[in-house]
Amino acid sequence: MTLADEIVKAVENMAPPSLAEDWDNCGLQVGDLQRETRRVLVALTPLPEVFDEAAEAGADFLLFHHPLIFGGLNSVREGSYPGNLIARAVKNSVTVYAAHTSYDAAPNGVSVALAEAVGLRGPLGVVAPRGEMRKVVVFVPEEAVETVAGALAEAGAGEIGDYTKCTFRTYGTGTFLGGEGTDPYLGEKGKLERAEEVRLETVVPAYLADRAASAARAAHPYEETALDVYPVEGHPEGCGYGRVGRLPEPATPEELAEHVSASLGFAARLVAVPEEPGRRVERVAVLGGSGGSFVRAAAASGADAYVTGDLDYHDALLAESLGLVAIDAGHAATELPSLAPLAERLAQLLDVPISVSRVRR
Are 82 and 46 in contact (CB under 8 A)? Predict the structure, then answer.
């Protein structure tokens, strides 16, 4: 059997917690990470019918997009939501985990799946970038440079656009004086040594910085590794909210709304159409979930149209004023396409049965 902790690590590899918003509550909601797991059920929202489905299927790990616990709890009342489901999870030894904004902002997260579902062509741009970058600098003897550089690349460092294994190397002289308890890789303890070394530097997403530093230390031949990690400007490749791409061919706003409805299986509403006779759209921004706060970002991305959920009256007015066609396709409808890809990627990493809930909300 697979421990719950192994499942959590696999999820967080794809949806790093550091990408989540401060107000969110991603992570373990209920359960014990050392509990053995028989089956995982992936679902959008914690609902009684999902718990019923899990019991029927024998699933004891529920992976939700929306958190079961949102904010602090003063009490757990079994007669009302969410206390009824929290109590049920505890009684039945069910582990509950939520990957919410962490999955929204992930490189292959919610909006990527939405873009694919509506048939947008890439390369897909990020509407609102998210996340931080780090620079890793390590000083290495020349004969070990390729080994350490390879370890950094394996840990996810050195990716810039479509390029991988990106590093910069500067040659210089390092000095050290080993104390009584040392066993230097080069030279002798108790003697000031000089060694020809290479300053090896590369970039890495902040959420992978610890992994990259650990990999560099493990591959380094020295007892003590001279290694620095510090922040740099920029965002990790592919991290952030929303994606923007192109339709296979231009469409009218009405045709786009019909296409979105057919693609997602839910009725989509055309809520904003700027006055422009004969207007056709081609470049489309999509954002899964509640995307009203990203209307300006969608317009700034160069999109002709914006597809998301939960657009209110004022969001529609803003979109129209910015010359942006806006389509409200529904909160759940724009997030549901992301569940199957998540389950498929998890199945490649874990030796445990994983299925997607049939509950569509």
Answer: yes
Distance CA 286, CA 279 (A): 19
Domain boundary among 209, 232, 255: 232
The label of the residue with tokens 């759940």 reads 332
How far is 267 from 245, CA to CA, in rounded Å?
A: 22
Cα gap 331→329, rounded to integer Å: 7
- Domain shared by 351 and 312, yes or no: no
Q: Is 213 helix (H, G, I), strand (E, B) or coil?
A: helix
Q: Which of 355, 253, 338 is closest to 15 using CA atoms? A: 338
Domain that holds residue 70: 2-103+338-356
Q: What is the pLDDT of residues 280-326, one digit of tens each?
A: 999 999 999 999 999 999 999 999 999 999 999 999 999 999 999 99
* Cβ partners under 8 Å of residue 172, min gap 6: 196, 197, 198, 199
- Is the predicted pLDDT of residue 195 greater than 90, yes or no? yes
CA distance 121 to 138: 40
Specify which residues 13 forms β-bridges with: none
> Is 213's pLDDT higher than 90?
yes
pTM score, whole prediction: 0.91
- For 212, what's the count of Cα atoms within 13 Å in the CB-facing half-sphere? 29
Written as six digits, the tokens of 162 are 């479509």
- The interaxial angle of helices 4-14 and 339-349, nearest 10 deg, is 120
| CATH code of the domain containing 179 | 3.30.70.120
